[in-house]
Write a structure and sequence with these properties.
31% of the residues lie in helices and 28% in strands. It contains seven helices and ten strands. The longest helix is centred in the C-terminal third of the chain and has 25 residues.
Length: 261
């Protein structure tokens, strides 16, 4: 292990103590809560820009919880530096807006593949390259949801670089959405896309090009077919479900992939 500190995440191999698992929320404000839910004795590691990190321990494995900020470019920086530090398994957690009318809130959306509406992923692979989740890690999320009796759906996510025009929101400063995005929400609905978010395309594309493993789960906090603003009660419940799910998914995967003696 080396003490060389990566420029953006401000972490080194020695600080991570052999961690192979990374849990990646977007919001730095959710890092401590997520880490302490995994391990009440989790400890702070570093903070720089959008990257806040804590280290937890679960069933003998070190778990890094590191925020990535919003969107693909900041995610790509975190993935480059964390992979170089030896992380192998990446679980992205976040919140999302669903676009299918039959999804009740809150609901866990486990992404199996992403529509690449981002730009960062195209710097790693051509647009024809699929953004797909790792089957092993995805199965751990699905199994955890089933065992915990939590509501969930699996399917395709539309992953947009922008929160407003790319997700066809008209409640903006200009009220205008460029023609290339007008009508796209209806199109994704007809193509059975479940939700919008902003990181999965970058995450899944990059990690696949690295030959590593990644999965994505988000708590649905708003239904875009009904409203644009989340209800505070739904938001709290969604975050609780997400925290419960990710801890159990980690436990399942660790138990199935115990290091050889």
């Amino acid at each position: 292990m080396t003490n060389e500190v990566k420029y953006h995440v401000r972490l080194s191999e020695s600080m991570l103590e052999g961690a192979r698992y990374a849990v990646l929320p977007g919001d730095p404000g959710r890092v401590e809560k997520t880490a302490r839910n995994i391990d009440p004795n989790a400890r702070f590691l570093a903070q720089n820009r959008e990257y806040t990190s804590w280290l937890a321990t679960l069933n003998g494995e070190r778990i890094l919880v590191c925020s990535t900020g919003i969107g693909g470019p900041s995610v790509s920086i975190a993935l480059e530096e964390l992979a170089a530090l030896g992380l192998k398994y990446f679980y992205r957690i976040g919140t999302t807006g669903v676009i299918q009318p039959d999804i009740d809130l809150p609901c866990l959306i486990i992404t199996t593949g992403a529509v690449r509406l981002d730009g960062a992923s195209t710097h790693y692979a051509p647009i024809e390259y699929p953004a797909v989740a790792d089957l092993e890690l995805t199965n751990s999320l699905v199994d955890a949801a089933r065992e915990l009796n939590l509501p969930y759906r699996t399917g395709i996510t539309a992953s947009s670089d922008t929160f407003y025009p790319g997700q066809e929101r008209y409640d903006t400063y200009t009220g205008y959405v460029p023609k290339r995005f007008q009508g796209t929400m209806q199109e994704w609905q007809k193509l059975h896309v479940l939700n919008y978010e902003m990181e999965s395309a970058t995450l899944l594309t990059i990690i696949n090009t690295f030959g590593l493993q990644a999965a994505m789960v988000a708590s649905a906090i708003v239904s875009r077919v009904k409203e644009e603003t989340p209800d505070d009660h739904v938001l709290r419940l969604a975050e609780e479900q997400l925290a419960t799910l990710i801890k159990h998914a980690l436990e399942l995967h660790i138990n199935r992939n115990t290091r050889p003696a």
